[in-house]
Design goal:
elongated, single chain, 8 helices, 2 domains, alpha+beta, 227 residues
Length: 227
């Protein structure tokens, strides 16, 4: 029998030996996917453990329904909804969940070699694309979010934005919020800094104009939850 044949090809039932082989192989596939994903991606401990444990869970479900793919996918799909209904995830997180389920499905059907090859290949694809920052080449490293608190009687369109024009190549006022019972305004700008080494100088100039109130320059973060 070839290593690419199902280990259930010569038997009509799942014995202890076949069950153990499937569980170990599925866990190995899950660990491969989890390890390669978490190396280059932000994650939580619970997510890393979940990705590693999904393949043996799915494999056990498939073996429990005697290889019926339709019934197995229906049950495993119900399991997967638990995460997606409890917390929104990024596109990559959801993709890794489905990849883990696919490797578990292969193990549950007895195709051990295919499951391991699949986990290694796709895991490496994720690793390489993330390392190369695929799809993120246009991200501007000088992009910043600037939050400035000013007195409510200050004309920020001239006093503050004149300084913004000197230290940024472009800026956009994205929100104005009343704070401290209306005595102050909190301005939020999206800006591209001319020189990141002059952030302190920029803050000092703004503090002169806003009467030494709070100023914050923050790195612009990409929304990791969006698809």
């Amino acid at each position: 029998m070839s290593i690419f044949d199902s280990i259930f090809a010569t038997t009509d039932s799942v014995g202890p030996q076949e069950f153990l082989i499937c569980m170990v192989s599925a866990l190995a596939a899950g660990m491969i996917l989890s390890g390669l994903y978490i190396t280059r991606n932000r994650h939580t401990d619970s997510y890393a453990v979940t990705v590693a444990c999904i393949p043996p869970i799915v494999a056990a479900v498939i073996m429990a329904v005697s290889g019926s793919i339709g019934a197995g996918i229906a049950v495993a799909g119900a399991f997967s909804l638990v995460r997606f209904r409890s917390a929104p995830g990024s596109a990559k997180e959801m993709a890794v969940i489905f990849l883990s389920m696919a490797s578990g499905l292969l193990c549950g059907m007895g195709y051990i070699a295919y499951a391991v090859i699949f986990a290694v290949f796709v895991g490496l694809v994720f690793f390489v694309l993330t390392t190369l920052n695929y799809g993120g080449g246009g991200k501007n490293k000088a992009a910043r979010i600037v939050e400035i608190t000013v007195p409510e009687d200050l004309d920020y369109s001239t006093e503050i934005e004149s300084v913004m024009g000197d230290y940024t190549s472009s800026y956009e006022l994205i929100s104005v919020k009343s704070v401290n019972m209306g005595s102050m305004l909190k301005l939020k700008y999206r800006a591209t800094m001319n020189d990141l080494s002059k952030q302190k100088e920029f803050i000092d100039k703004v503090r002169v104009r806003n009467r030494n109130l709070e100023v914050a320059v923050l790195r612009e973060e990409t929304d990791t939850r969006g698809l």
